Amino acid sequence: MRVLVVGSGGREHALCWAIVASPLLTKLWCAPGNPGIAQVATCVPIGALDIASLVAFAQDNQVDLVVPGPEAPLVAGITDAMEAAGIACCGPTAVAAQLEGSKTFTKDVADAAGIPTALWERFEDAAEARAFIRRRGAPIVVKADGLAAGKGVVVAMTEEEALAAVDAMMETRVFGEAGAAVVIEEYLTGDEISLFALCDGETALPLGSAQDHKRVGDGDLGANTGGMGAYAPAPMFSAELAEACLARVIQPALREMARRGAPFRGILFAGLMLTPDGPKLIEFNVRFGDPECQVLLLRLKSDLLAALQAACDGELRNFDLRWHDTAALGVVMAARGYPEAPERGSVIRGLDAAAAVPGVQIFHAGTEADADGTLRAAGGRVLTVCATGETLRQAYDSAYAAVGRIDWPEGFCRHDIGGRALGRG
Ligand code: AMP
Ligand code: GLY
Questions:
Q1: Are 47 and 332 a contacting pair, CB within 8 Å?
Q2: 100: Cβ below 6 Å to ligand 2?
Q3: Residue 253, class by beta-carbon neighbours within 10 Å (0-12 exposed, 13-18 middle, 19+ buried)?
Q4: Is residue 81 lining ligand 1, measured as CB closer than 6 Å?
Q5: Which of 65, 98, 161, 337 has its CA 20 to 30 A from that of 19?
Q6: The model's pTM
Q7: Ligand closest in space to the Cα of 293
Q8: pLDDT per position as a tens digit, 372-408
Q9: Which domains, from first to last, does the chain contain?
Protein backbone atom coordinates (compact mmCIF):
# COMPACT_ATOMS: atom_id res chain seq x y z
CA MET A 1 0.00 0.00 0.00
CA ARG A 2 1.05 3.53 -0.77
CA VAL A 3 0.10 5.75 2.13
CA LEU A 4 0.02 9.51 2.76
CA VAL A 5 -0.17 10.78 6.34
CA VAL A 6 -1.24 14.42 6.73
CA GLY A 7 0.10 16.60 9.54
CA SER A 8 3.35 17.51 11.25
CA GLY A 9 3.05 16.85 14.98
CA GLY A 10 4.00 14.18 17.47
CA ARG A 11 0.74 12.42 16.69
CA GLU A 12 1.63 12.18 13.01
CA HIS A 13 5.14 11.00 13.83
CA ALA A 14 3.61 8.21 15.92
CA LEU A 15 1.18 7.33 13.11
CA CYS A 16 4.07 7.12 10.64
CA TRP A 17 6.15 5.10 13.10
CA ALA A 18 3.32 2.57 13.46
CA ILE A 19 2.41 2.45 9.76
CA VAL A 20 6.01 1.90 8.67
CA ALA A 21 6.02 -1.34 10.68
CA SER A 22 3.22 -2.77 8.54
CA PRO A 23 4.06 -5.55 6.05
CA LEU A 24 1.31 -4.07 3.84
CA LEU A 25 3.27 -0.84 3.28
CA THR A 26 5.24 -0.21 0.11
CA LYS A 27 5.69 3.58 0.35
CA LEU A 28 4.97 6.20 3.01
CA TRP A 29 4.74 9.96 2.57
CA CYS A 30 3.89 12.62 5.10
CA ALA A 31 2.72 16.16 4.31
CA PRO A 32 4.26 18.32 5.54
CA GLY A 33 5.96 16.15 8.22
CA ASN A 34 8.94 17.13 10.37
CA PRO A 35 12.58 16.03 10.81
CA GLY A 36 11.59 13.09 13.03
CA ILE A 37 9.02 11.89 10.53
CA ALA A 38 11.64 12.25 7.78
CA GLN A 39 13.48 9.33 9.39
CA VAL A 40 10.62 6.96 8.53
CA ALA A 41 8.70 8.62 5.66
CA THR A 42 9.26 10.89 2.69
CA CYS A 43 8.17 14.38 3.68
CA VAL A 44 6.25 16.41 1.11
CA PRO A 45 6.16 20.21 1.48
CA ILE A 46 2.38 20.61 1.28
CA GLY A 47 0.45 22.13 4.17
CA ALA A 48 -2.20 20.05 5.94
CA LEU A 49 -4.93 22.48 4.86
CA ASP A 50 -3.92 22.71 1.19
CA ILE A 51 -6.46 20.08 0.22
CA ALA A 52 -6.33 20.65 -3.54
CA SER A 53 -2.56 20.10 -3.61
CA LEU A 54 -2.85 17.04 -1.36
CA VAL A 55 -5.42 15.48 -3.70
CA ALA A 56 -3.23 16.23 -6.72
CA PHE A 57 -0.21 14.70 -4.97
CA ALA A 58 -2.18 11.59 -4.00
CA GLN A 59 -3.41 11.15 -7.57
CA ASP A 60 0.01 11.70 -9.13
CA ASN A 61 1.60 9.18 -6.78
CA GLN A 62 -1.12 6.51 -6.81
CA VAL A 63 -1.72 6.81 -3.09
CA ASP A 64 -4.00 4.02 -1.82
CA LEU A 65 -4.83 5.46 1.58
CA VAL A 66 -4.70 8.92 3.15
CA VAL A 67 -4.49 9.22 6.94
CA PRO A 68 -5.20 12.74 8.21
CA GLY A 69 -3.88 13.44 11.72
CA PRO A 70 -5.37 16.80 12.76
CA GLU A 71 -8.99 17.95 12.81
CA ALA A 72 -8.69 21.06 10.63
CA PRO A 73 -8.35 19.28 7.25
CA LEU A 74 -11.15 16.87 8.23
CA VAL A 75 -13.52 19.71 9.10
CA ALA A 76 -12.43 21.38 5.84
CA GLY A 77 -13.45 18.29 3.84
CA ILE A 78 -10.25 16.40 3.01
CA THR A 79 -12.09 13.08 3.14
CA ASP A 80 -14.81 14.27 0.77
CA ALA A 81 -12.18 15.63 -1.64
CA MET A 82 -10.06 12.46 -1.58
CA GLU A 83 -13.08 10.20 -2.03
CA ALA A 84 -14.31 12.33 -4.93
CA ALA A 85 -10.93 11.63 -6.53
CA GLY A 86 -11.29 7.90 -5.85
CA ILE A 87 -8.75 7.80 -3.01
CA ALA A 88 -9.56 6.15 0.32
CA CYS A 89 -9.18 8.45 3.31
CA CYS A 90 -9.39 7.21 6.88
CA GLY A 91 -11.35 10.03 8.47
CA PRO A 92 -14.85 11.47 8.69
CA THR A 93 -16.46 13.55 5.96
CA ALA A 94 -16.87 17.27 6.61
CA VAL A 95 -20.42 16.70 7.81
CA ALA A 96 -19.41 13.92 10.22
CA ALA A 97 -16.43 16.02 11.38
CA GLN A 98 -18.94 18.53 12.75
CA LEU A 99 -18.84 16.28 15.82
CA GLU A 100 -15.67 18.24 16.55
CA GLY A 101 -16.27 21.31 14.42
CA SER A 102 -19.44 22.45 16.16
CA LYS A 103 -20.31 22.16 19.84
CA THR A 104 -23.99 22.64 18.99
CA PHE A 105 -23.94 19.77 16.49
CA THR A 106 -22.36 17.49 19.10
CA LYS A 107 -24.92 18.45 21.73
CA ASP A 108 -27.77 17.84 19.27
CA VAL A 109 -26.39 14.41 18.40
CA ALA A 110 -25.90 13.60 22.09
CA ASP A 111 -29.46 14.57 22.95
CA ALA A 112 -30.95 12.72 19.97
CA ALA A 113 -28.92 9.60 20.79
CA GLY A 114 -29.58 9.70 24.52
CA ILE A 115 -25.89 10.13 25.37
CA PRO A 116 -25.41 11.47 28.92
CA THR A 117 -23.90 14.96 28.78
CA ALA A 118 -23.99 18.28 30.65
CA LEU A 119 -27.22 20.28 30.35
CA TRP A 120 -26.68 23.03 27.82
CA GLU A 121 -28.08 25.94 25.89
CA ARG A 122 -26.89 27.74 22.77
CA PHE A 123 -26.82 31.52 22.34
CA GLU A 124 -26.28 33.75 19.33
CA ASP A 125 -27.08 36.86 21.32
CA ALA A 126 -24.60 38.09 23.93
CA ALA A 127 -27.25 39.80 26.07
CA GLU A 128 -29.24 36.59 26.30
CA ALA A 129 -26.08 34.64 27.14
CA ARG A 130 -25.28 37.08 29.95
CA ALA A 131 -28.83 36.91 31.31
CA PHE A 132 -28.63 33.10 31.34
CA ILE A 133 -25.34 33.19 33.24
CA ARG A 134 -26.79 35.60 35.82
CA ARG A 135 -29.79 33.31 36.22
CA ARG A 136 -27.78 30.09 36.58
CA GLY A 137 -24.79 31.42 38.54
CA ALA A 138 -21.29 29.92 38.70
CA PRO A 139 -19.55 27.59 38.32
CA ILE A 140 -20.60 27.38 34.70
CA VAL A 141 -18.89 26.57 31.40
CA VAL A 142 -18.79 28.82 28.32
CA LYS A 143 -17.73 27.37 24.96
CA ALA A 144 -17.22 29.01 21.59
CA ASP A 145 -19.35 27.01 19.17
CA GLY A 146 -16.71 26.59 16.44
CA LEU A 147 -13.10 25.38 16.26
CA ALA A 148 -10.80 27.48 18.45
CA ALA A 149 -7.63 25.36 18.51
CA GLY A 150 -8.60 23.81 21.83
CA LYS A 151 -8.80 27.20 23.54
CA GLY A 152 -12.48 28.00 23.15
CA VAL A 153 -13.64 26.67 26.53
CA VAL A 154 -13.81 28.70 29.73
CA VAL A 155 -14.61 26.81 32.91
CA ALA A 156 -15.77 29.79 34.96
CA MET A 157 -15.68 29.47 38.71
CA THR A 158 -17.27 32.92 39.11
CA GLU A 159 -20.06 34.75 37.30
CA GLU A 160 -17.60 37.53 36.37
CA GLU A 161 -15.33 35.08 34.58
CA ALA A 162 -18.25 33.65 32.65
CA LEU A 163 -19.48 37.11 31.64
CA ALA A 164 -15.95 38.08 30.57
CA ALA A 165 -15.79 34.92 28.42
CA VAL A 166 -19.02 35.91 26.67
CA ASP A 167 -17.57 39.38 26.01
CA ALA A 168 -14.31 37.97 24.66
CA MET A 169 -15.96 35.34 22.44
CA MET A 170 -19.07 37.16 21.22
CA GLU A 171 -18.12 40.85 21.28
CA THR A 172 -14.31 41.05 20.90
CA ARG A 173 -14.42 37.85 18.78
CA VAL A 174 -11.07 36.57 20.02
CA PHE A 175 -11.79 33.31 18.14
CA GLY A 176 -13.28 35.04 15.11
CA GLU A 177 -16.43 33.46 13.71
CA ALA A 178 -16.02 30.44 16.01
CA GLY A 179 -17.41 32.70 18.75
CA ALA A 180 -20.43 33.98 16.83
CA ALA A 181 -22.43 31.50 18.90
CA VAL A 182 -21.64 30.06 22.31
CA VAL A 183 -22.79 26.98 24.15
CA ILE A 184 -23.21 27.48 27.90
CA GLU A 185 -23.38 24.36 29.98
CA GLU A 186 -23.60 22.82 33.38
CA TYR A 187 -20.33 22.41 35.29
CA LEU A 188 -19.37 18.77 35.76
CA THR A 189 -16.92 17.36 38.30
CA GLY A 190 -14.99 14.12 38.36
CA ASP A 191 -12.02 12.44 36.74
CA GLU A 192 -11.54 13.23 33.08
CA ILE A 193 -10.72 10.45 30.69
CA SER A 194 -10.30 10.11 26.94
CA LEU A 195 -11.69 7.10 25.15
CA PHE A 196 -10.69 6.32 21.56
CA ALA A 197 -12.40 4.11 19.00
CA LEU A 198 -11.72 3.27 15.37
CA CYS A 199 -15.03 3.41 13.50
CA ASP A 200 -16.21 2.20 10.09
CA GLY A 201 -19.61 3.90 10.10
CA GLU A 202 -21.25 1.08 12.01
CA THR A 203 -18.76 -0.79 14.16
CA ALA A 204 -16.51 0.78 16.81
CA LEU A 205 -13.28 -0.94 17.74
CA PRO A 206 -11.93 0.33 21.07
CA LEU A 207 -8.41 1.79 20.88
CA GLY A 208 -8.09 2.23 24.62
CA SER A 209 -8.21 5.07 27.06
CA ALA A 210 -5.66 7.66 28.06
CA GLN A 211 -5.39 10.59 30.39
CA ASP A 212 -4.10 13.90 29.13
CA HIS A 213 -2.59 16.80 31.12
CA LYS A 214 -3.91 20.00 29.62
CA ARG A 215 -2.43 22.65 31.90
CA VAL A 216 1.06 23.90 31.20
CA GLY A 217 2.41 23.61 34.75
CA ASP A 218 2.99 20.95 37.39
CA GLY A 219 0.00 20.36 39.64
CA ASP A 220 -2.39 21.32 36.81
CA LEU A 221 -1.54 25.01 37.13
CA GLY A 222 -1.25 27.66 34.46
CA ALA A 223 -2.66 28.08 30.98
CA ASN A 224 -4.51 25.47 28.97
CA THR A 225 -2.43 23.79 26.26
CA GLY A 226 -2.90 21.19 23.56
CA GLY A 227 -1.66 18.62 26.07
CA MET A 228 1.58 18.34 28.04
CA GLY A 229 1.68 14.58 28.50
CA ALA A 230 -0.42 11.45 28.62
CA TYR A 231 -0.40 7.91 29.86
CA ALA A 232 -2.27 4.71 29.13
CA PRO A 233 -4.03 2.73 30.28
CA ALA A 234 -5.75 4.90 32.89
CA PRO A 235 -6.06 2.69 35.99
CA MET A 236 -9.35 4.24 37.15
CA PHE A 237 -10.90 3.27 33.84
CA SER A 238 -11.79 -0.40 34.30
CA ALA A 239 -12.64 -2.71 31.40
CA GLU A 240 -16.22 -2.62 32.66
CA LEU A 241 -16.38 1.16 32.57
CA ALA A 242 -14.82 1.19 29.10
CA GLU A 243 -17.48 -1.25 27.90
CA ALA A 244 -20.22 0.94 29.41
CA CYS A 245 -18.86 4.06 27.69
CA LEU A 246 -18.67 2.25 24.39
CA ALA A 247 -22.28 1.12 24.74
CA ARG A 248 -23.65 4.42 26.08
CA VAL A 249 -21.59 7.01 24.22
CA ILE A 250 -19.70 5.73 21.17
CA GLN A 251 -22.20 3.27 19.71
CA PRO A 252 -25.25 5.54 20.11
CA ALA A 253 -23.29 8.32 18.38
CA LEU A 254 -22.48 6.01 15.46
CA ARG A 255 -26.13 4.97 15.16
CA GLU A 256 -27.31 8.58 15.25
CA MET A 257 -24.75 9.67 12.64
CA ALA A 258 -25.75 6.80 10.35
CA ARG A 259 -29.42 7.72 10.85
CA ARG A 260 -28.56 11.26 9.73
CA GLY A 261 -26.97 9.91 6.57
CA ALA A 262 -23.49 10.93 7.75
CA PRO A 263 -21.91 7.67 8.95
CA PHE A 264 -18.77 8.26 11.01
CA ARG A 265 -15.55 6.69 9.75
CA GLY A 266 -12.20 7.26 11.36
CA ILE A 267 -11.08 7.87 14.92
CA LEU A 268 -13.73 8.96 17.38
CA PHE A 269 -12.28 10.46 20.56
CA ALA A 270 -14.72 10.91 23.43
CA GLY A 271 -13.73 13.25 26.26
CA LEU A 272 -15.61 11.94 29.27
CA MET A 273 -16.13 13.12 32.82
CA LEU A 274 -16.55 10.32 35.33
CA THR A 275 -19.15 12.13 37.45
CA PRO A 276 -20.84 10.82 40.59
CA ASP A 277 -23.87 10.14 38.32
CA GLY A 278 -21.82 8.07 35.87
CA PRO A 279 -19.75 8.95 32.80
CA LYS A 280 -20.85 12.02 30.86
CA LEU A 281 -19.68 13.22 27.47
CA ILE A 282 -17.71 16.49 27.51
CA GLU A 283 -16.83 16.55 23.84
CA PHE A 284 -16.12 14.51 20.77
CA ASN A 285 -13.03 14.90 18.65
CA VAL A 286 -12.80 13.27 15.25
CA ARG A 287 -9.14 12.23 15.30
CA PHE A 288 -6.49 10.92 17.66
CA GLY A 289 -5.45 13.17 20.53
CA ASP A 290 -1.93 14.55 20.64
CA PRO A 291 -0.10 13.31 22.79
CA GLU A 292 -2.63 10.52 23.54
CA CYS A 293 -1.97 8.93 20.14
CA GLN A 294 1.70 8.48 20.92
CA VAL A 295 1.07 6.45 24.08
CA LEU A 296 -1.84 4.46 22.63
CA LEU A 297 0.12 3.37 19.58
CA LEU A 298 3.09 2.29 21.71
CA ARG A 299 0.79 -0.35 23.20
CA LEU A 300 -0.61 -1.58 19.89
CA LYS A 301 0.60 -5.02 18.84
CA SER A 302 -1.58 -5.37 15.71
CA ASP A 303 -1.00 -3.85 12.30
CA LEU A 304 -2.35 -0.27 12.41
CA LEU A 305 -2.43 0.05 8.63
CA ALA A 306 -4.60 -3.06 8.23
CA ALA A 307 -6.99 -1.66 10.83
CA LEU A 308 -7.23 1.76 9.14
CA GLN A 309 -7.88 0.09 5.80
CA ALA A 310 -10.59 -2.11 7.36
CA ALA A 311 -12.24 1.02 8.80
CA CYS A 312 -12.34 2.58 5.32
CA ASP A 313 -13.73 -0.65 3.87
CA GLY A 314 -16.48 -0.95 6.49
CA GLU A 315 -14.98 -4.25 7.62
CA LEU A 316 -14.28 -3.69 11.31
CA ARG A 317 -17.02 -6.15 12.28
CA ASN A 318 -14.57 -8.95 11.56
CA PHE A 319 -11.52 -7.23 12.96
CA ASP A 320 -9.76 -7.43 16.27
CA LEU A 321 -6.82 -5.54 17.76
CA ARG A 322 -4.21 -6.92 20.10
CA TRP A 323 -2.37 -4.86 22.68
CA HIS A 324 0.85 -5.16 24.64
CA ASP A 325 0.28 -5.71 28.31
CA THR A 326 2.47 -2.70 29.16
CA ALA A 327 1.95 0.82 30.40
CA ALA A 328 2.97 3.78 28.25
CA LEU A 329 3.68 7.36 29.25
CA GLY A 330 4.60 10.40 27.21
CA VAL A 331 6.11 13.69 28.35
CA VAL A 332 5.79 16.70 26.08
CA MET A 333 8.82 18.97 25.89
CA ALA A 334 7.80 22.46 24.88
CA ALA A 335 9.72 25.59 23.96
CA ARG A 336 10.04 28.27 26.62
CA GLY A 337 7.09 30.65 26.34
CA TYR A 338 4.58 27.97 25.31
CA PRO A 339 1.58 28.28 25.04
CA GLU A 340 1.50 32.09 24.73
CA ALA A 341 4.66 32.85 22.74
CA PRO A 342 7.05 29.92 22.28
CA GLU A 343 10.63 30.90 21.46
CA ARG A 344 11.91 29.53 18.17
CA GLY A 345 15.35 28.52 17.05
CA SER A 346 17.05 27.10 20.15
CA VAL A 347 19.30 24.08 19.56
CA ILE A 348 18.27 20.63 20.85
CA ARG A 349 20.98 18.06 21.57
CA GLY A 350 21.22 14.64 23.12
CA LEU A 351 18.30 12.92 21.42
CA ASP A 352 20.34 9.83 20.53
CA ALA A 353 21.43 9.38 24.13
CA ALA A 354 17.85 9.88 25.29
CA ALA A 355 16.47 7.38 22.77
CA ALA A 356 18.99 4.81 24.02
CA VAL A 357 17.18 4.52 27.36
CA PRO A 358 15.45 1.10 27.18
CA GLY A 359 11.78 1.29 26.23
CA VAL A 360 12.01 4.90 25.06
CA GLN A 361 10.59 6.29 21.83
CA ILE A 362 10.88 9.97 20.97
CA PHE A 363 8.39 11.62 18.64
CA HIS A 364 9.05 14.98 17.02
CA ALA A 365 6.52 17.81 16.71
CA GLY A 366 7.75 21.39 16.28
CA THR A 367 11.31 20.67 15.22
CA GLU A 368 13.36 21.78 12.22
CA ALA A 369 16.78 20.69 11.05
CA ASP A 370 19.60 22.84 9.66
CA ALA A 371 21.42 21.63 6.55
CA ASP A 372 24.09 20.11 8.80
CA GLY A 373 21.48 18.23 10.80
CA THR A 374 21.44 20.53 13.84
CA LEU A 375 18.00 20.24 15.37
CA ARG A 376 16.12 23.37 16.47
CA ALA A 377 12.82 24.22 18.14
CA ALA A 378 10.28 25.45 15.61
CA GLY A 379 7.00 25.36 17.47
CA GLY A 380 5.32 25.24 20.87
CA ARG A 381 5.21 21.55 21.58
CA VAL A 382 8.50 20.25 20.25
CA LEU A 383 9.00 16.63 21.34
CA THR A 384 7.00 13.86 22.99
CA VAL A 385 9.37 11.70 24.98
CA CYS A 386 7.60 8.37 25.47
CA ALA A 387 8.39 5.13 27.23
CA THR A 388 6.75 1.81 27.85
CA GLY A 389 7.25 -0.30 30.96
CA GLU A 390 5.79 -3.27 32.76
CA THR A 391 4.25 -0.79 35.18
CA LEU A 392 3.32 2.84 34.87
CA ARG A 393 6.06 3.62 37.38
CA GLN A 394 8.66 2.00 35.10
CA ALA A 395 7.34 3.89 32.10
CA TYR A 396 7.50 7.12 34.12
CA ASP A 397 11.07 6.46 35.27
CA SER A 398 12.27 5.64 31.73
CA ALA A 399 10.56 8.61 30.10
CA TYR A 400 11.99 11.06 32.61
CA ALA A 401 15.43 9.41 32.44
CA ALA A 402 15.32 10.14 28.71
CA VAL A 403 14.15 13.71 29.30
CA GLY A 404 17.16 14.13 31.60
CA ARG A 405 19.51 13.21 28.75
CA ILE A 406 18.12 15.84 26.40
CA ASP A 407 20.35 18.89 26.28
CA TRP A 408 17.95 21.74 25.60
CA PRO A 409 18.09 24.55 28.16
CA GLU A 410 15.34 26.50 26.39
CA GLY A 411 12.88 23.62 26.65
CA PHE A 412 10.67 22.60 29.55
CA CYS A 413 8.24 19.88 30.54
CA ARG A 414 5.89 18.94 33.34
CA HIS A 415 7.35 16.62 35.95
CA ASP A 416 4.13 15.05 37.13
CA ILE A 417 2.78 13.22 34.08
CA GLY A 418 0.90 10.18 35.34
CA GLY A 419 1.07 11.63 38.85
CA ARG A 420 -2.56 11.02 39.68
CA ALA A 421 -2.34 7.34 38.76
CA LEU A 422 1.00 7.01 40.56
CA GLY A 423 -0.63 8.32 43.72
CA ARG A 424 0.86 11.76 43.97
CA GLY A 425 -1.64 14.50 43.65
P1 AMP B 1 -13.33 20.83 25.60
O2 AMP B 1 -12.55 21.68 24.62
O3 AMP B 1 -14.80 20.78 25.38
O4 AMP B 1 -12.68 19.50 25.82
O5 AMP B 1 -13.11 21.52 27.01
C6 AMP B 1 -11.81 21.73 27.51
C7 AMP B 1 -11.78 21.35 28.96
O8 AMP B 1 -12.72 22.09 29.70
C9 AMP B 1 -12.16 19.90 29.20
O10 AMP B 1 -11.07 19.06 29.01
C11 AMP B 1 -12.63 19.94 30.61
O12 AMP B 1 -11.56 19.89 31.52
C13 AMP B 1 -13.26 21.30 30.73
N14 AMP B 1 -14.72 21.21 30.57
C15 AMP B 1 -15.42 21.24 29.42
N16 AMP B 1 -16.74 21.14 29.65
C17 AMP B 1 -16.89 21.04 30.98
C18 AMP B 1 -18.02 20.94 31.86
N19 AMP B 1 -19.28 20.89 31.40
N20 AMP B 1 -17.78 20.88 33.19
C21 AMP B 1 -16.52 20.95 33.68
N22 AMP B 1 -15.43 21.05 32.91
C23 AMP B 1 -15.58 21.10 31.58
N1 GLY C 1 -4.53 16.30 23.75
C2 GLY C 1 -5.84 16.71 23.46
C3 GLY C 1 -6.15 16.83 22.04
O4 GLY C 1 -5.43 16.39 21.18
O5 GLY C 1 -7.19 17.36 21.74
A1: no
A2: no
A3: buried
A4: no
A5: 98
A6: 0.94
A7: 2
A8: 999 999 999 999 999 999 999 999 999 999 999 999 9
A9: 2-89 (3.40.50.20), 125-180 (3.30.1490.20), 190-318 (3.30.470.20), 327-412 (3.90.600.10)
